[in-house]
Amino acid sequence: MQMDLIGETLFYRQFDNGLKAYVLPKKNYNKVYAVYSTRYGSIDSEFVVPGTGERLKVPEGIAHFLEHKMFEMSYGNVFDKFAELGTSSNAYTNYTNTTYLFSTTTAFEESLRLLLEFVETPYFTEDSVEKEKGIITQELRMYEDDPEWQVLLNLLKALYHRHPVREDIGGTVESIQKIDVDTLYKCYNTFYHPSNMVLFVTGAVEPEKVFDLIMEHEKNKELAPQDEIMRIYPEEPDTIYKHQVETKLSVSQPIFLMGFKDTEVGYDGEELLKKEITTSLLLEVLFGRSSVVYERLYEEGLIDDRFSFSYEGQKDYGFCTIGGETKDPVKLRDELVKSISEVKEKGLSREDFERVKKKYLGDFIQGFNSLEFIANSFVSYYHRNINIFDYPRFLKQVTFEEASRRLYSFFDFNRMAVSTVYPKN
Amino acid sequence: MNNLFTRKTLDNGINLYTCSTDKFKTITICAFIHQSLEKVTATKTALLPFVLKRGSHDFPSSRVINRYLEELYGADFGGDILKKGERQIIQFFIEMVNPMHVGAEDRILDEGLKLFKDVLLNPATEGSGFKKVYVEQEKDVLKRNIESLFNDKFSYAIERCFQEMCKDEPFSIYKYGSISDLQEINSENLYGYYKTVMSSSPIDIFVLGEVDEEQIYEKFNRIFSFERQEKKIPKTIVKKNVDREKFVEEKQDVNQGKLSIGFRTGTCYGDEDFYALIMFNSILGGGPHSKLFQNVREKESLAYYAFSRLEKTKGLMLVSCGIDFDNLEKTIDIIKKQIKDIKEGQISDYEFESSRRSLINSYREAADSPPMIISLYLDGIINGVEESIEEIIAKIQRVTKEDVVRVAGKVTLDTIYFLNKK
């Protein structure tokens, strides 16, 4: 199967054990970038273990901990094997997925075999699990000193009563102490089944060769088919938990972040993509560099060009963030609220909306310069049942009327929270 | 990849580097205006791109500029400051989508150029200076920007280590200058300075994307036709004797200690030994294969990150890691031991070959990214080196363990900086 877009062709194949693989060849490139990703992130903290039916609640931060431990093999650390090939390898965990990756210019085939092998081979020992707690503790400490991360964590704690998106992806220094070998295996066996994963390769490769190599590797891995994983999320009210959260850190001036909780949730695929595009366009019209609001706040010295906004839309939750450093967080909040109210009163400008759509189309095309952007966006959308190749089509389809409607439903001040980091002393 | 860019000099002495390729979805234009890094001019230089970005004669405000960019399918446009060795560089760039991907409106390149030119050469003025309100607002933004380095403890610890280490050298000047020097800047003296900069600084312009090289040259020669008299930028001082190891400790209310250690290597890009030096750096702290990653992180679980990196124009090496406050001495001992081991030739085949392959991989990867390609060539221009990525790789191939040991012998620890808790 293949799909064409802006001079790129996407190839696709599904294997007998349920694994799906996608290849986007980039002939002029030197590099190959590959990701192997599972739909398992920090919010999957309670689930039913397939087969046994056991209902399990796991310590916060375990998906991320598991990501670290996957690099351990019976023969040692798989980082070392990649290094011998001159390949750089890494991984990341976010709220909804865990993704392993490599990039190479010389040893693609060996690297891909290695990626498949290590992600498909769990190997955890008590000693190495204990040792990892030291490394991850330092990773968490690093984030404790990161004001941008802290201001976001606090905002999510304010927006959500119970949903696990309010917990740090890495967990806490205390929660990770509770992680053990047995639970790691249970999480692995639940979420690292091929039917819950996707492989994406882009760069200097030929699709048929990639598929053949995967086939060769996967043919001996007979796995029992697995039903849809039962993920358990607590009942989350439409209301927010708190209107504001404040904390103090060693910073030079306050850092401000405002967010709205999305309550139109529960769907994925096309609907989710349309909602994401609509909401992002709205934010751009309201607060983008070409907006009157941005100009006014900048000239008043309330924001600078590090001011930013974004929308995150997942199946079970969604929120936007708006903010940056400011000398006066209270005034900035009032100004932002005032400006949203004004647009709600006067209505959206059709001209602004159409212009911003053009910008988003260009930004999407620009992204295709970067193999990392292509692969990481692909898997992120894939886990929400969206094909990234549909993006330009839906962008064109989103109407001014839909955006106008969303303006009133999404920017509901009852579901707005503010998080601020103030300087210590 | 061969020598990628065609170099031509415009009639007024500006260098134009063009490369026509359909590899990328965009056309990137980058201008670099070089200054010598000096206390008296650093803050003025730093302020310039931000004031210019605020508006020009034909595009009188940021908002007008941004609306225009959105119409050009979200072209990226910006200006900033780079510091490479003892050189401060004003950078302006515009990146436009290749018109063929959005329906053959090939005016995008010309319209992008129109903005680029106007912002650089035709700024918004009043009286005998820049528009006053823009200068005052940007002074305020720059002040906050300088202060906000403090928020990012990772970068802060690295910058502070370099500052302490190079106290008496221009290299200690922060790329955005200093808050105290901001006071005396006003719209008139900044405008005067701007004119001097444009007429006397070396300027390099890069164009990368699907373009007609001949046409591009003619366009630029027409646009950038003003009179210039270029001055020379003095060479960065690389060699300096270290009398004794310095230790600097600073206390803040933080949860993790940040350790930065600065070394002098006496070797910079352009020296014969440079390729041995980048191998040395890779073996020490250039990735998961390196001695720092293996020993500080994997064996002792002291840190989440532990790496070393080079400032290749000044010939400095910096080791950095985030650790528990109580582990300072232990970590320093381990780091010192790794350097001593390399000096004594204790480099395994695994460490050596992995370092070589990792370096080659990253140089080849750089050729897939427009900003990386341009950045590598700019480093070459600054250091008087003209070589392609393949030539660099060939030189890395030839480095032996003996070369690494020899270059390691020149590496001297200068300053240990530690950000501790209060």
TrEMBL record, chain A:
Spans through the membrane: none
Pfam families the record matches: Peptidase_M16, Peptidase_M16_C
UniProt domain Peptidase M16 N-terminal: residue ranges: 60-171
InterPro entries noted in UniProt: Metalloenz_LuxS/M16, MPP/UQCRC_Complex, Pept_M16_N, Peptidase_M16_C
Domain Peptidase M16 C-terminal: 178-359
GO MF entry, a single one: metal ion binding
Segment forming the signal sequence: none
Protein name: Peptidase M16 domain protein
The species this protein was found in: Thermosediminibacter oceani (strain ATCC BAA-1034 / DSM 16646 / JW/IW-1228P)
Lineage: Bacteria, Bacillati, Bacillota, Clostridia, Thermosediminibacterales
